[in-house]
Amino acid sequence: MPAGEYLSPADLAALDVTIRKAEQLCRAEFSVFVGRVQGDDARRFALGLHRMLVLPDRTILVMVDPTAQRAEVVTGERVRSRLSDAQAQHALEPMVEILRGGDLVGGLTHGIQQLAEHARTQ
To answer: Which pTM does this prediction carry?
Structure first.
């Protein structure tokens, strides 16, 4: 998570706890990128980040560009059977609203929790 200019060490620690709980709930990996999107297409950038992950098929990537107030969620193939694109979008919308309100950690926490809830194993 290259987020040093956006998140404090305490913020990073809190997000780490949120991510670990989410991973336990849904048995998928989470990867979070906080930084500036390179290029004009945030979705393409997020897809590229997702492809570089160690286990992309099992991973939910949450990409947030605080400067542009943009966020994207990319799901791996194995996760997609439990987390549809519509569910990911449903979790993304309130996350973006919280981010636009200036609460980066709150937005990420809410989004990650919602994604995990949708993707949880039965």
So the answer is: 0.91
| Chain center to CA of 41 | 17
Query: What is the token pair recorded at 10?
Result: 């305490």
CB atoms within 10 A of CB 21: 14
- Rounded Cα distance between 101 and 80, Å, is 29
Gap between the Cα atoms of 102 and 13, Å rounded: 19
Whole-angstrom distance, CA of residue 88 vs CA of residue 21? 18
User: pLDDT for 10-36, tens place per residue?
Assistant: 999 999 999 999 999 999 999 999 999
pLDDT at 1 over 50: no
Candidates 99, 47, 46; CA nearest to 68 is 99
> Angle, nearest 10°, between helix axes 9-26 and 104-119?
10
CA distance 63 to 72: 5
The single-letter DSSP state of residue 55 is S
